[in-house]
Amino acid sequence: MDFFILVTGTDAGEREDYMTEKIREYSMNGALIIGVDNGYGNMKTARRCFKTAIAKYDSAPVLSRDYIEYDGGYYVIGEGRKGFVADKQTDDDNYMLTLAAIVKELEARGMTDSVNRARIHLAVGLPLKWVQAQREDFKRYMLRNSSVEVGYKDRLYCIEFAGCTVMPQCYSAVTENLKDFAGVTLLADIGNGTMNLMYLNNGRPMESKAWTEKLGVFQCFQKIHNMVQDKTGDNLMDDVIDNILRSGKIELPDPHASLVEKAICDYVEEIFQKLRDHEYNEKLMKVYFMGGGARLVENFGEYNPENTVFNNDIRANAKGYEYYCYMLLRHQERAGRR
Predict the structure, then answer these.
(1) pLDDT greater than 80 at residue 19
(2) Contact 244, 224 (CB under 8 A)
(3) Less Cβ around it within 10 Å: N or C end of the chain?
């Protein structure tokens, strides 16, 4: 795993996004840097988040407007549930979801003309321990076409790909703020499919102490489903469980509510046990939780509040990819001039 140690700070401009949050925009050599976090549960960009699910149709959908048109096919976004795939480049779904994420992000940036043209540098990521082995294949997968035309909401997006940079999840989310991490801190990025762990020592990554565990929020989903079904015979709808995991609120009657709470608490305790397996000691170091599972730990876990930090911004990695990519490209450009 190759880490480029970043010096924090930026000279990129800022603009206001559709939710009034100030989000920086980065560009290099005339190409917009667009960060896409290809999560197993949700696709995220700096400004948008949607379910990692897509279904193809041969004709335009009647009931949904949230679809893209590409190469003669119509792809409804957020329909169904995509299973866990360790190698994301083994099917077309992640590519189509990435195109959907790009046009949604471009729309959020104000590109809403009937025809929109953009030259972009794609910034994506992979789990910590998978980056080195899968980076080149994932980059080729994303750059399979040098340019594409994608229809979305009666608009046409003509996209030219200037390049693609693949970065490590978890670390990328905090690179802009490394100076704030004093002492030893364990980063715990809990996604839907995996949990990425990494130690920082005064803001510097400890490469030998980084792990990717298959202990994402989907494991909690399965615990809830199985426990309720086993104890009551009832089958909770997927959307009901998703809403609980997303909001952290259990709005069900007993005994269902108690069973759901127990399943979540059991899952959170598994997380802390995994941290302890990797030398975590809440008395001697800090832990920084992020990702979709951070809110579950905050609401249902037992922890030392003085040494525990929660970042509940589910788009933190996507934003971090843009910053990290910008800094890498700027470093490469300066090195090429020497």
Answers:
(1) no
(2) yes
(3) C
* Encoded tokens for 325: 């990519």
Q: What are the φ/ψ torsions at residue 171 (nearest 5 degrees)?
A: -60, -40
In 3D space, the residue among 115, 175, 123, 176 whose CA is nearest the CA of residue 149 turns out to be: 115
Longest CA pairwise span in the chain (Å): 69
Kindly give the residue spans of alpha helices, DSSP state H, lying in 256-315.
256-277, 294-300
Strands (E), the chain: 14-16, 22-24, 27-28, 31-38, 42-44, 49-51, 54-57, 67-70, 73-77, 115-126, 147-152, 155-168, 184-190, 195-201, 204-213, 286-290, 308-311
Give helix then strand counts, H and E, for the chain: 8, 17
In whole angstroms, what is the distance from residue 276 CA to residue 91 CA?
36
pLDDT digits (tens, 9 = 90+) for 67-84: 999 999 999 998 766 555
Residues of the chain with CATH 3.30.420.40: 14-171+316-337, 179-218+243-311
What are the structure tokens assigned to 194, written together? Answer: 């995996």
8 Å CB contact between 76 and 64 = yes
Return the DSSP state at 14.
Answer: E
CATH topology of domain 179-218+243-311: Nucleotidyltransferase; domain 5 (3.30.420)
Looking at residue 297, what DSSP letter applies?
A: H
Q: What is the pLDDT of residues 82-119, one digit of tens each?
A: 555 555 566 788 999 999 999 999 999 999 999 999 99
**Fold (topology level) of 14-171+316-337:** Nucleotidyltransferase; domain 5 (3.30.420)
pTM of the model: 0.88
